[in-house]
Amino acid sequence: MIKRELAAYLTYISGYFPVISVTGPRQSGKTTLIRSTFPNHEYCNLEDPVQREFALNDPQSFLKQGTVNMIIDEAQYAPQLFSYIQVIADIRKKNALFVLSGSQNFLLMEKITQSLAGRVAILHLLPTSVRELLASGWANTQGWEYFLYRGGYPGPISANLAPKDFYPFYIQSYIERDIRQLVNVLDLERFRSFLTLCASRIGQQVNFSALGSEIGIDSKTAARWLSVLETSFIVYRLPQFHKNFGKRLVKSPKLYFHDTGLVCYLLGLRKEEDIKTHYAKGSLFENFIITELRKNKLNSGAQPSYFYLRDNTGHEIDLVTEGGGTLIAVEIKSGSTIQTDFLKNISWFEKITRGKSLISHIIYGGHEEQNRTTTRISPWNKLPDI
Asked: How far is 213 from 219, CA to CA, in rounded Å?
């Protein structure tokens, strides 16, 4: 079993809320994490047709009228349970009465906000991080291409299953199970093409008209399909930083995947060596680093407040965040050798934020560490410590 960092925060926060919700993509390890953390809770999976029918037709009996603590997997399939859970939580006034999980974020979150606001702690479990894999002994410090190509789904990693033997079935089951439930997609092959097209656009600004025209759908359909991919934890959008510093900035968000192994498979990469010569090498590395930083943040129970910044002349900072009045800028470079050019956009950012507190980092694909005048340059294999 790969030890998950979120377990510590899950245990901690369960002492303060009657309901805990853990969402994340299919196969990210939610069920394993929850059942190992709450071994004495009764477990029910609503993907089981019998259990789902029971929950839908007789929710009070299903919940045993609040006499047993429960784990309810894929809870979004029986939304009428949430009102009963609210009543039970208010009557019993105990913590960790119900632990809910789901792989369809929008459906689950919609019901939670309607019925359980103020009574539920909401956590997100993404595929395993580099830090988790190294700490659990499931990987060594091979090149970043190894981690990027393998992806983070714990099942194939712990079973030593090659990505080419895992992702085809993952995509097939995802499309057949989730897409049909979330949106009326008549042409599943076209949706598969849309998924592949999104993989080819990682690190780029979202343009619905361009996405749609390339596979023959309108921009509204492209926007709806992308929302479906976000809802089921396949992709996420990184928004533009909200402060413009008096510059003309590009407003569109950038597109990334929660798992780089899936991106590699969709792009036709069948071994990690293929990444080194691929046209999207830089974008793949950027996706890898930003997603790892997001995982580390979510695993601590915090919400990543991450952005990017770009003006209309092409100056860009790959990642911007803010804390305690200090701006933090991160540039991401896949090159294995430190170059002066790495600092170009950091210098631009320092100029437009002059007078503000600023910390700047460069994360790159090599192994040497350096401290420049205003910038810390860190190798990718120090990522767990950043």
From this structure: 8
